[in-house]
Input
Amino acid sequence: MLIQENVPLAPLTTLKVGGPARYFVQAHTIAEVGEAVSLARSRNLAFFVLGGGSNLVISDAGWPGLVLKVSIPGVEERSQGDKSLFEVGAGEQWDKFVAQAVSRNCAGVECLSGIPGSVGGTPVQNVGAYGQEVADTIESVLALDLKDGQVRELCNEACSFQYRTSIFNTSERGRYVILRVTYALTPDGEPAILYADLKKYFAGWSTKPSLADTREAVRQIRASKAMLITPGDEDCRSAGSFFKNPVLSDEQYKELSQRATAKGLQIPSYPALQAQRKISAAWLVEHSGFSKGYGNGRVGISRKHALAIVNRGDATAAEFVALKEQIQRRVEDTWGLRLETEPVFVGF
Ligand code: EPU
Output
């Protein structure tokens, strides 16, 4: 296993900001992941696991310890009852796997087309879009438990998935290195056309959209919002949504919509679990004095989606943090709500 020193991390992220890793190793097998962990332990190095780099803000100082990039490859398909199980290496590109699932005509992840990042990152924040989330299809997660060095298979329930969370980014943060994820997909299943954007796309169609049609639709919709990585488009140099959509109790929601009504506005919201409402964070941003394209030329709000903060050219992590704080402050002053950030902040 090659141990590299002072490796720039910015190129390994979609945001393209941040400093270097003091030490850097890439693991292609479970054994190599184990070796990297032992190395970090024996040298007492702070340890950070990097996946596809699509949801990270790395500090300008970088990471003082060891960065492990998990590059475990492989997709294996097998049948189990009426499902097709896909056992996928954590290092596989997520969208490549989705393309493969769709080409095998297996349903369950088609709406998650065009999302950047690696397979290993998907359980961590329970990646979701257009009415699907990986919690719906994850059968199990194979992970190295740093507590005792054992490789464990965690079933779906053990991961405690919720909106953008799991045990991996809450109660057990830092405990596991994800090695493989098994998805249970439905052969010849129907595409999930649940969201308004998708329904609109297919509105004039006389034939039933296939899984492949749905994948194409999602990719086009994402591209129109600069949420599909398109080389050369600076509005795509982002970490996706920078803020989570706030999930409010019925009472909080009533209070907020009264505030909006007083301003002559209606706030977009969607039903969430347990009698809660999910509010559009993008809308809150746009109704707190920011518009798409806002910024100073180096860091700004995407011209195509108010939730993405983009790197327009040599931006620093400090500039991202400053804009994030400005947005959080103004939204809080205007709406009494504190937006939570969605990406992971590393080395701050
Ligand atoms: N909206 C605005 N301004 C904008 C964009 C959207 O006001 O610039 C309002 C509109 O009312 C729109 C609503 O926000 O109807 C929802 O917007 P959109 O459908 O674009 O979805 P989102 O809530 O901004 C979420 C996820 C995305 C996911 C999309 C599609 C979060 C934080 N974001 O975005 O996931 O792709 O839904 O399902 O949950 C990500 O997490 O990085 C991500 C890209």
Summary: The mean pLDDT is 96.
